[in-house]
Here is the input.
Amino acid sequence: MRPPLVVWDPGMLAYDLGGNHPFSPVRWQLTWELADALGVLDGIGRTAPEPATDEQLARIHTPAYVAAVRAASDRPSSGLWVGHGLGTADNPSFPGMHASAALIAGGSVLAARALAHGEADRAINIAGGLHHAMADRAAGFCVYNDAALAIATLLDEGVQRVAYIDVDVHHGDGVQDAFYDDPRVLTVSLHETPMALFPGTGWPAEVGTGEAAGTAVNVALPPGTSDTGWLRAFHAVVPGAVRAFRPEVLVTQHGADSHAEDPLADLNLTVDGHRDIARSVRSLADELPGGRWLALGGGGYAVVRVVPRSWTHLLATVAGRDLDPATEIPQVWRDRALELRPRTEPPTVMHDGTVTTIEVPRWDGTTEQPVDRAIRETRDRVFPLLGLDPMDPRD
Here is the structure.
């Protein structure tokens, strides 16, 4: 297997919403330092992208919105609303906002082009996954929707069918919205129910429109869902939908905010669950012709204890260098974490208690548990549109 394309530029750290905002670039800094301390990417270089151009951004975003981001970057609003979703508590304006957001977007565009042209089989941009940004507004800490831009780039470069899987605790609304009527793109999102969590979308009834009916798949999980329930939902819905769609490239978003320690949501996954998710996604990617796979970061607000471990496992999984979960975390990294976040307790090992693959009972069609009812509702809504039997657990 060829080494993956690993996208990174320290300039991405300037995507800093400031103050005590939960979306801190510390997550990326500590992830790279942990991956380096554990030798995950030894011998694999990192590729710095060019910022996405206005022409590239216009593939998803309106020119008026890009102009507004530029203007707000030059004149930060100190929290005052300036239009297009900018200057809010979620998306405050900050100096250099356009430049850093365009750099992150450019990273995902670069990765997509490399996959489309056979220059790489796998790629990863952990600064990417900003899935809430809409065509004409910022939302949910996201300025430019690099995930949607990557998918659009793949299509423009000749890829016929793209599947997008979003495992962030929040619905991947911006990506779904961008391709809701495009039959060439399958969007799959597993997230906490919109009854309980931002952005309030991602109901099972959202299945796509027109010729794209059946290409939006939403699994709305009940609060408190843990590793086994989450993974059961994944395996009961995602492989069947992806195989039926027959994509040429897989794009995945790996928000780490489904973890039990995340302060902004209510699911109860562990780093061990995240590790199994990444490996399950890799198995799906390996089924595709050429195994083309682009992995992106996303949310995650336990920036010391959770995100660096989750995404270091993700980097290792993409690179085909799976880490032993029992690996101890070097003291030098723990000291660095305390330097950056003094009032935290850095983890000591790369697991949360499970060092083997998590045993997941296969969904058998029952609806006894809330998570099983969520599975059934999604399958009932979308599987017939994909030519699958919602009552057959083999599909």
Observations:
- Strands lie at 5-7, 46-47, 122-125, 162-166, 185-192, 216-221, 249-253, 293-296.
- The first strand starts at residue 5 and ends at 7.
- The longest helix spans residues 97-116.
